[in-house]
């Protein structure tokens, strides 16, 4: 409305000015007056409207252009400011060049013995070490290339933004007024003056980055070409395992390189691979240390429990895992966790194995028979020598003779052990088979070495001794794990004993067969890594686990599913370990400490729930499961529950709760709403209880959880029984107490802790009532024990003259008439 009023005002003002101008002209010229009189009033108004419209449109376009010009100039200044700030973060050109130089130096080190100083043949270990170093260098070069590409893209974006802003059409709409035009041109000149150095700097920086990118690209190309060449070498070596590389050992060498140089570049290359791998797997190494500390705390706590209960044996028979908790924890974690390091350098494996050997040697001290202790130390010595020899990456005549001598000594020692070994003193009989296998491998290594099969000979040479050491480490690892679980099971008798539930009554002290299956698989993996063909044989299996599969709209891999299950399993185990420390039955040594442990236990319950929730989220994230899909599934379940699936879902969820929380296990003796018996099976929706009458009661899991469930097995399968006895008023009460205490003390089926109790209840109408309370060691013996005790009590009371009176009443007759007559 304001714009319309201003427009009307301007039109009226122009019309009045026009009339005044026309009247003035009438007074000056008579001919002009005649011409103007010819035009009627409507025509004059139409001409005026057209002229005013054109003028208003021109002014509107000029104002619009001025606004756009102001916005564009502001945007140009902001973009220039951002570009200046970005350019101040100077490109680390010296750092990039230094990194490229370091890559080149490392490439020279890695290529020694492969691309330079090749010798007569390639070696498997040298090719493997070089491949690992080059792969790491490629990753470093790619990371640098990515940074340079990102910076160049940002610089190009700044230049593009400036060019596009300077090409806005509104900038080229010049004002019609000469004064305004001069001011506008001066502004453009200032903007151009400010933009020019920024554009030049951007262009110069882009050229510098492009120059560095060219160098990086050339480095990447050279590294990748070298990797492809090494892969061809490795493939050829895997396909020609039995091919001769050198002449017979007694023939003169075809190529000679000083042995000192070989040792020097082997050490340099080995340390380089170790540093790269440690840097890339620093997180796993930290987790390894934390697991060792956690296991140490657990084993030390278990040892303290046994010391407090005076259950620790002096010879540690069956308790060897508790002898040195830190060494046992280190051995167990290193033996198991090493499989989480994918394609580790051999030097890292050697460190893990030697540390494990040192721990086991100290644990063995004065526990293992002296003869077998010497055999173990000899095998460790052989392994250490062969491991150091295996770190030598290039073949030499000195090394071949060294391998031959050590193989012959190892062969003789192994053969003598098999012939004259004291097998009756051997605690793990499987060790004999590993020694026999070592003898075969060392004999094959001798033959291969004599006739120039160097790579085969070296592989057999290290594999022979490695197989013995790994077998012994794994056998004792399984044994120590089994001991740790068994010992925890024995003392974990609190209300949460189910969290460490293992049916040792069925397994006993012998490790489950699954442990030995995993032992053989782990041994095969570590043993096979020494052979060139192992990676090519294992590649299909790796592809099977890593290959992506599609189910509907969800893409997954077997590896992700296994990772999901592994994380959930670890979360459950960690929560169980936390629950172990929350147990107040072992670590509390007083009323105050017990109450304090109970308080801590209530807090640790929240910690357990948090651990499981965190584990679930980590497992979902690691498996790559989209959260929106989970939301959809939960929504669908909600709809299903709303349409009448409450009972089914209740039973299914109850089944999951029973599976995780384990309020009852298969084989437990339970009592549910009067249905007493033994748990026969626990299903996903329902469970089966075999009652004492021989019938199977099928009970939904929801009813099982909601009922008043009595689980006798959680309390150690014990039951408290009472017997009510009445004795006559003239009996010796103290003697009766002593007789009952003796009978109860001589009964082996009665638990001594807590001790039986004999107490007098009340003075009855015909007898003094006393009650006997006692705990049977097993609920299945409760009724039989009670029956036998009643017989023994009756016999003892008869022999000692203690009467058990019948309920009786005395009636007195009073006759007053007869009394008066007398």
Automatic annotation (TrEMBL):
Segments forming domain Mechanosensitive ion channel MscS C-terminal: 723-804
Transmembrane segments: 282-299, 320-340, 346-364, 376-395, 401-419, 431-452, 464-492, 513-531, 558-582, 603-625, 631-653
Cellular component GO terms held in the UniProt record: plasma membrane
Membrane-topology annotation of the record: Multi-pass membrane protein
Domain of life: Bacteria
InterPro entries: LSM_dom_sf (IPR010920), MS_channel_C (IPR049278), MscS-like_channel (IPR052702), MscS_beta-dom_sf (IPR023408), MscS_channel_2nd (IPR006685), MscS_channel_C_sf (IPR011066), MscS_channel_TM-2 (IPR011014)
Major site of localization recorded for this protein: membrane
Keywords attached to this entry: Cell membrane, Membrane, Signal, Transmembrane, Transmembrane helix
Signal peptide: 1-22
Domain Mechanosensitive ion channel MscS: 647-713
GO molecular function, one term: mechanosensitive monoatomic ion channel activity
Location in or out of the cell: Cell membrane
Pfam families listed in its UniProt record: MS_channel_2nd, MS_channel_3rd
Family recorded in the similarity comment: Belongs to the MscS (TC 1.A.23) family.
Protein name (Swiss-Prot/TrEMBL): Mechanosensitive ion channel protein
Upper lineage: Bacteria, Pseudomonadati, Bacteroidota, Sphingobacteriia, Sphingobacteriales
